[in-house]
Amino acid sequence: MTAVPHTPPHTAPPPVPSPRPVDPALLSRALETAGRLANDAAEVITATLGREHTGSLDASAKANPFDWVTDTDRTLERHTRRVLAAEFPGCPVVGEEFGADAGADTAPLRWVVDPVDGTANYVAGLPWCAYSLALVDGDGPAVGVVADPGRGQIYAAARGRGFRANGVPVPSRRTARVAGSLICAEDPDPGFVERARAAHVGVRVLGSAALAITQVALGNAVAAVLTRYHEWDVAGALCLATEAGALVLGRDGRSTPLPEGGLLVAAPQVAAEVGALWRG
Description:
This is inositol-phosphate phosphatase. The protein is α+β, with helices and mostly antiparallel strands.
């Protein structure tokens, strides 16, 4: 019989500072615009899933030759930028395919978009892919949407306004224990996978960082662990997760909107235990 390693006790993460409020009218307008763009993207992704042949795709601009760029990626990001430029003039956009607008790193507000998160799944015809858009300020994502076309869902959240799926509030699902639960992970360290298995925890790699974090917001997984990521991969889903009550932590166990060196998104009741498994 395999012995289950003892998980040492860890103190709870320090309290999370309250983010600054955002103008309510701006939040409402941003949430409405982001929702429209997510619906547009869901229709396009659904209609084209698995129909772009790999021979015509471009991986030349990426370090990983498996990290495809499709016509759909480019089309959706161009559409997003056009709409945002018209409705939020002067607010810079950061996107996976076309980079950051001038001044995005110092602007008080910026939009962050990943037109197809999980492009390899999309190319293969697997429905685990998503559109992600967020409005970000100095305290992190203030508005976030994630379109999950495979399940016919548009997830949306705004700071202080909770988390909704297709316009319906998502009820909180409290998680009391890690054993017997699932953790979503992207590029997981083999040691982490072994520790999780020994602790009777299932690890699932979805191929989409946005959807991995969204599973925590929904209560389907107790945590998501990302070894590396870009802001556009996670910003929209982090808004969903924080509004659902999850914690966003770095490897040091401290709460920060976008940790460097990997991140952990977890239900508060299990954050310390999952963090111990992650750090080893």
